[in-house]
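Students often ask what a holo structure prediction actually looks like on paper. The answer is less mysterious than it sounds. You provide the chain, you provide the ligand, and the output is a string of discrete structure tokens encoding the 3D arrangement of the protein together with MU-OXO-diiron.
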Amino acid sequence: MGNGVDNEVTNPSDNRSFEDVLSVNLQRRGIIKGGLTLATTAFFAGNMPSALAARGGYGSEGYDALINFSPVPVAAGNGAWPTISPEYQWQVLIPWGEPLEPNGPAYQYPPNAEDQARQIGIGHDGMHFFPIFDEKKRRCGWDHYPWNDDKSWHSNIDHHNWGPKNNWGNQRGLLCINHEFGSNGHVLGKNDPESLEDVRTSQHAHGVSVVEIKSRRGHWQQVKSHFARRIHVNTPVTFSGPVAGHDLLKTPAGNQPLGTVNNCSNGYTPWGTYLTCEENFNGYFGATNLRGSWLATEQQQRYGFADNGFGYGWHKFDRRFDLSDPAYKNEENRFGWIVEIDPMDATQTPVKRTALGRFKHEGIAMTVGRGGRVVGYMGDDQRFDYIYKFVSEDNWRKMRKAGKSPLDHGTLYVARFNDDGSGDWLPLTIDNPVLAEHFTDQAEILTYARLAADKLGATPMDRPEWTTVAPDGSVYCTLTNNSRRTVANAANPMTPNLDGHIIRWRDNNKHTGEHFNWEIFLVAKETHGTESSYSSPDGLFADPDGRLFIQTDGGQKDGLNNQLLVADTLTGELSRLLTGVTGDEVTGITMTPDRRTMFINLQHPGNGDPSVTNFPARPDGVTVPRDSTLVITRKDGGIIGS
Ligand code: FEO
Ligand code: CA
Ligand code: CA
Ligand code: CA
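The corresponding structure tokens follow.
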């Protein structure tokens, strides 16, 4: 549910026929035959033999395999309760409705609007663990995570003195977590809101939570914290970057910008802030004037706005979400952005960073590229939409020292995947004559980034979801599925693509150039009927040893629930670590710096139906299921995924 709406197609551009030009590339057909054959393609081949030799030689005695846990078998992968590998264990943390801090308003069903604004939201999705590394609760830098440091590519878990003596940051930290969506049926216990109070309850269940958590002898719990806060649909926000102050963000009503919604996946910056990504924001708007005086503009259509949205009904009681109310013209342009949140300052106003463009942002994977510039890779999750990247104009430290946000000044690009395995990043700038012909200024290009990308001939993809940057510099992206694809292109070769695939690329010029080389890494369909069966890959995380964690969101084959798998990026081996509960989606992934505690989310267990599962209550009662975070550890205290 909820994200079934991703199934619409709103890209009418000529780029659809551009697919015909590319046509099906038979050479690359061979490439999708399986993980191992891929390894022989041009760009990635160079690293393979030496990296495998460093592990003792693939297949030889003494070979140091990355994945050694016993996988959850297909036969055990479908229940009303999670199933995890026997070497691992899980614990529930912060279910929907739990008070933000101890002694806050207790969970009750259904919630009221006032309580919900001080409780954990619903629709747990992207999240990040920010370690607190000493009793002064100082901020941890980006390089405290071993996966952000080139030098720690092979398991340097003692990096920056993380270890038994200074272990705080592995046992205490702030969890920033997105609350993507909750249907009215699940949140309110009825399909249609009957009052503004109902709408407020729904709005307060969306957004972001910041909670402080701590491990006491291996058991994680929330603690009282001056960092704890809820950000929801009515929280004041501000705009920054090229679109800030522009007419496109002003309404005739002159109302102040408020809120963030449909917060899907996430990112985090080298300077220690959290990025939350607004995905299916269109679905919360509707039009009360259904007599035809409201007509969707070309821009609104391209972003999927419709009379009744996804059925939340907010527009019936809250004029801000009524597209046919002239006083709130342009309110919809205030959503679809990436929002920066400072987890260590509960008084900070969240900032919408407009230089990153407006589309259905799934997530953002950040890295530091040549010259200390920050680079963010982003997917726009809709059928036939695009992959983007942002590169800051200068070294991030230098920019911050000069009082400039690296996320406000830089270039947004959209990806074209050529059929010979090369790719181009096409700059979405007003200097480009093709764009200057159709757009008045940079602000308009960024606000309608999808339409600008259409003009440049970007490659329409099979629903780009998460991206992750592996420490060896390769970037992975999930293309979750696309049942409407009838014409293949080289990067999206399946017609239709019912089960999805994972693509990877490497940029030239250390992430800052305009060219890349790509290949298909895994094709989900090829796993069906095997013990590593999965479909609809979505969440991703690349660890410093060469593992790729893959989470799924969509109908699984072979009788499985949605799941968490671990792949070896060098050999293509794939092993199932966990399956969730019936009707859920497995998403959100973050770790402590020592990689001995992982946090993931089970979103919409049972799709909210207590006859399917009571999770996280024990299976024997009848309670409304609650979206929850799971804490995952190895029973022997080892590295997660090993
Ligand atoms: Fe919110 Fe594209 O998943
Ligand atoms: Ca989802
Ligand atoms: Ca997703
Ligand atoms: Ca998905």
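The chain has one domain: 3-55+107-279+336-345+358-634.
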